[in-house]
Structures are given as structure tokens and as C-alpha cells.
Write the C-alpha cells for this entry.
Amino acid sequence: MAQRQQPSTSVKHQNFVKEPMGNKPVNHLPGIGQVTSARMNERNITQASQVYGKYLVESRNPVAFENWMKNDFNVDRNRARQCSNAVDSYYKEFN
């Protein structure tokens, strides 16, 4: 029986997950670049921990979390998924 492969992750993903979040800015999250970071900052979301908190508030539901990113910050599906995967990996690593 073949094992299911994990999706490949970016260097940004690996760096985000390898250490505690601390006060990392929101743009340290995979899927969040300059434009999305600026949109989030306009709404006082400046730290990755705030985005992670939203993921937890959504009961770790990736669909709800990704919809929040798409609806509130105009993030495309791929980038929303990158962020969702990163915060989920973080949760699994540190909880």
C-alpha cells in the first residue's frame, strides 16, 4: 500500500513552522505577501498570531478560514490554502 505524500512546502512554510510564532509579522505567513499584508494592516491585523487566532476561532476549519481570507482580503484560493496549510502545520507542531 502506497503512503500518501505530504504536499510540498515552501521555504517560507518551513521557516514559519520551525519555531514559535512570537511576534512575527503577518507577512511571514505563507500566502501573505506585500499586498495582502497591507490589506490586513489596514484592519489592524499586523501579527501572524492574529491570523493563527482566526484559524483557531474557525475551529481549524480550512474552508471557513480560507473563505475569510478570500472574502475579507481578496486572497486567491491558492494563497489562502498556503496560509491555511501553514497555520495547520504550526498547530500540529506546537500543540
About this structure: Residues 66 and 80 are 5 Å apart (CA to CA). The chain is about 60% helix and 0% strand.
